[in-house]
Q: What sequence folds into this?
């Protein structure tokens, strides 16, 4: 049986002056149970589909990945937000550090990977400089196909492929909506290979759909174990999830408006970035479902132990009382190394200590230092980091965030604040149908020279 645990000692009244008492926690747990019941109804009615991703048949994807193994030296992923962050979370957690620098044999002859997310010309230029167009597979990932950054980067890569006479049917794959959208139209126009994103799964909840599963399979990552981890959470993680969601909700109510996720491993840095999008887009809402103005949310922040002990921890310990910190601990780290400091007097205390223990000792020390300053923290502990455990973490946080939205009467599955910015960009760029947005921008975006220096 795999181990995942939640230590919430340092959110409770028994350890903190203003911690939660048992009655408060029980009250929140009842609310979360109600939220879970409502989420289950939404899943059964297909209003949302992310929990069912763990049971989708990936046979076609596995067969496709096997059919191209060894054929491509590089894989370019074109996508942004939910179309890239989940992929990077898994790739950077599970593949060797600086994977792209390894020789083909040390990579198992799986391709290097490059992510074209931002429309930064410098980044786009150097990605293409690294790649041989005839040895590169390109995945264009966008549910709508209209995301401006993805469209722009696709045009750059499309021109690069055409200029080099590359067979698009061989090298270009689309991952998009099954029926509609610009990418679906392009698939039909060129007869491209494509994989579908379920209509009832939004981008930030889509990592265990074809959005993530296709590139994972191409890189040789065990997608069945990823889904096994997510499935294990659904069937065995209820108690942990209920407690965690209840604690988050209680402290949002108490004004802890900054939510820090601090894994004590550099391998989970990109997972923390994925968490920031999931939390921020899902829970930062101006209106309730019934149209009442609420301005709900808390700000997600990523920190990495021990690195950010030397930057952010000073603020967390002595700054405003506005943060809840969630640590992630690995019980066992890969490639552990034991230290020998016998040759220098001031390093002798490290003799016999391994790096894994040192990381966890620093985490334990940080927890207690924060507790003594009356700062709130809890800790997720996993036995080790692999496909199973990261699949569990994905599903855990998706359930937590969806439930927090439901019990606070907001929609955790939309992002109207993001859409408005996109619409202004379309208007400025003279996209047909967005003329009113251009006029609105010109009227609202005026700047006075007096305030520019």
A:
């Amino acid at each position: 049986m795999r181990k995942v645990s939640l230590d919430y000692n340092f959110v409770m009244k028994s350890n903190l002056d203003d911690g939660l008492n048992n009655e408060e926690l029980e009250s929140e747990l009842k609310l979360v149970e109600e939220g879970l019941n409502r989420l289950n109804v939404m899943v059964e009615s297909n209003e949302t589909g992310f929990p069912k991703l763990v049971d989708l048949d990936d046979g076609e994807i596995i067969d496709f990945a096997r059919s191209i193994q060894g054929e491509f030296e590089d894989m370019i992923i074109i996508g942004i937000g939910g179309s890239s962050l989940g992929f990077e979370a898994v790739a950077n957690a599970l593949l060797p550090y600086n994977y792209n620098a390894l020789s083909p044999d040390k990579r198992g002859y799986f391709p290097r990977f490059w992510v074209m997310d931002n429309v930064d010309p410098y980044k786009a230029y150097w990605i293409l400089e690294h790649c041989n167009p005839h040895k590169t597979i390109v995945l264009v990932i966008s549910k709508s196909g209209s995301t401006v950054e993805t469209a722009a980067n696709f045009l750059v890569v499309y021109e690069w492929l055409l200029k080099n006479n590359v067979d698009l049917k061989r090298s270009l794959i689309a991952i998009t909506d099954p029926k509609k959208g610009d990418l679906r139209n392009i698939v039909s126009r060129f007869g491209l290979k494509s994989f579908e994103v379920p209509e009832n799964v939004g981008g930030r909840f889509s990592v265990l759909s074809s959005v993530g599963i296709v590139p994972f399979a191409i890189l040789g990552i065990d997608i069945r174990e990823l889904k096994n981890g997510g499935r294990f959470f659904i069937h065995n993680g209820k108690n942990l999830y209920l407690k965690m969601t209840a604690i988050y909700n209680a402290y949002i109510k108490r004004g802890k408006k900054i939510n820090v996720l601090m894994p004590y491993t550099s391998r989970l840095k990109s997972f923390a970035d994925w968490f920031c999008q999931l939390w921020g887009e899902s829970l930062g809402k101006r209106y309730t479902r019934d149209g009442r103005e609420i301005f709900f949310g808390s700000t997600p922040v990523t920190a990495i132990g021990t690195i950010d002990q030397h930057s952010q921890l000073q603020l967390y310990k002595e700054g405003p009382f506005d943060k809840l910190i969630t640590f992630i601990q690995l019980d066992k780290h890969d490639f552990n190394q034991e230290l020998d400091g016998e040759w220098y007097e001031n390093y002798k205390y490290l003799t016999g200590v391994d790096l894994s223990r040192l990381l966890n000792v620093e985490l334990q020390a940080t927890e207690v230092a924060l507790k003594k300053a009356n700062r709130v923290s809890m800790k997720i502990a996993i036995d080790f980091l692999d496909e199973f455990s990261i699949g569990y973490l994905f599903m855990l946080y998706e359930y937590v965030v969806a439930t927090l939205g439901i019990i606070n009467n907001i929609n955790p599955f939309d992002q109207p604040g993001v859409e408005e910015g996109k619409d202004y960009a379309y208007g400025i760029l003279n996209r047909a149908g967005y003329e009113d947005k251009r006029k609105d921008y010109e009227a609202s975006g005026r700047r006075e020279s007096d305030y520019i220096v």
